[in-house]
Amino acid sequence: MVESENGKVEEASGDYAQTEVQSRAAAGVREKKFRAAPKLDRSRIHGLWSLTNRDLRKWYTNPVQLFASMIQPVVWLVLFGKALNFGKFIASAGGSQAAQNEILLGFFGTTSYFSYLACGMLAFVILFTAAFSGLSVVFDRRFGFLNKALSTPVARGTIIMSKVLQSVGRSMAQAAVILVIAVVLGMDTSHLSILGIIAAFTILFLMSMGLSSLFVMFALRSGDWQTQIAIINLINLPLLFASNALFPAKEMPTWLQGVVNVNPVSYANDAVRSLLLGSTANYGLAVDFVYLFGFAAALSAIGIVLSWRFLAK
């Protein structure tokens, strides 16, 4: 009888201990379930990187879009660079090779028009990539993502700068491809240096920042992609042809030279040709850098200020 009672007591104690363990385990599960969510990273850098990477990912994870964006500037370079062969035209007029080089040097600042155009194509591809930066804002508004972004703690200026930086990243990648292909196709490399390439891409970075900010500003209140395309067509070609990207400004009409001299594309081309080809900078490298730095800083600041007022759901 005693042994039976002791067994029952021990069995009851075991059941109690097991119940206690299960109760504590359940409490632990509930504690984990209702534990506070991890603290969100609300820093501006984190928000800027997340939004920029989102747009870049849509570009580099789409094979067709990536290939088309990379091959298009190469096609332009081959078509323009090899079709507009001024060197062959001058050679057909006769004279020694030294005389021909002297004519080309006096006209283009280099003995190879292909090299002259290749540097212009670096600014050309940046101009056209920057022009489409505003379309990202239009489509984000149309498909509802912009409303979601505006509902987060991310500042409106950060949203705008993410659009600018994704455009800058794409244009820098395309410019690098253009430079490599140009060297393969016969660009003059006698003055190329690592420092010169870094300085040239710094100039292109500033130009891309300014132009991307400009086109993003035009898209702040636009909800129609056709309107944005019309703005691109209205601005892009004048910026291209009223610059020294394809032809020296000194050979243009006097009234057009005034437009060329305020065009940021002209200053970028002037600096890039000086750094990569060793040609004389018409405006001076220091002036080119200061002008483009001011252009990029002013347009970026204006874009951020306008986003506070005009960027809305």
What's a quick, concise take on this entry?
It is built from 14 helices and no strands.
Describe this entry's structure for a reader.
The protein has 313 residues and is mainly α. It is built from 14 helices and no strands. The protein has helices at residues 2-33, 44-60, 63-83, 86-92, 97-108, 113-131, 133-142, 145-150, 156-185, 194-218, 225-241, 254-260, 264-277, 285-310. The chain is elongated and about 70 Å long. It starts with a helix and ends with a helix. The mean pLDDT is 80.
Which features does this protein show?
313 residues; 14 helices
Structural class: mainly alpha
The unreliable regions are: none
The N- to C-terminal Cα distance equals 82 Å
Along the chain, the helix and strand elements come as: HHHHHHHHHHHHHH
Work out the helicity level.
over 70%
Q: Please report which band the strand proportion falls in: under 5%, 5-15%, 15-25%, 25-35%, 35-45% or over 45%.
A: under 5%
Shape: elongated
Largest sheet: none
Number of helices: 14
Mean pLDDT metric: 80
